[in-house]
Amino acid sequence: MTPRINDITPAEWDLMRIVWTKGDVHSRDLITLLQQKRDWSESTIKTLLGRLVKKGLLNVSKDGRRFTYSATVDERSAMDETVQELFAHLCAMKKKAKRWST
């Protein structure tokens, strides 16, 4: 599955930044760190983790009762792809605006 970087929501970016910084990280540590930054419930964070796994952006492994998450794409690549997509979108908007004004 190809990671869907352009589908990352702002909330998911917050979570991904922690994973990129920490590397392999246990779900409990992610929950603790995100709750320090945001007023999110544990279930909200677990939902975000599940979405990122489905999008192919996180790998998850289970060791007993502990889940460990790791990124499938590095931060620089994700940021570069996001910027390129935004730039392409802005250029397309500019091109459409120009076409409609003539």
Structural overview:
This protein is of the alpha+beta class. It is 63% helix and 14% strand. It contains four helices and three strands; from the N terminus they run H-E-H-H-E-E-H. The chain has a three-stranded antiparallel sheet. The longest helix has 27 residues.
The tally of helices reads 4
Overall number of strands: 3
Kindly estimate the percentage of residues that lie in beta strands according to DSSP: 5-15%
Q: What's the pLDDT, averaged over the residues?
A: 86
CA-to-CA gap between the ends? 43 Å
Radius of gyration from the alpha-carbon trace, in angstroms:
17 Å
- With strands numbered from the N-terminus, the spatial order across the biggest sheet is 1-3-2
Uncertain parts: none
Overall geometry: elongated
Q: Name the structural class.
A: alpha+beta
Element-by-element helix/strand order? HEHHEEH
Helix percent band = 55-70%
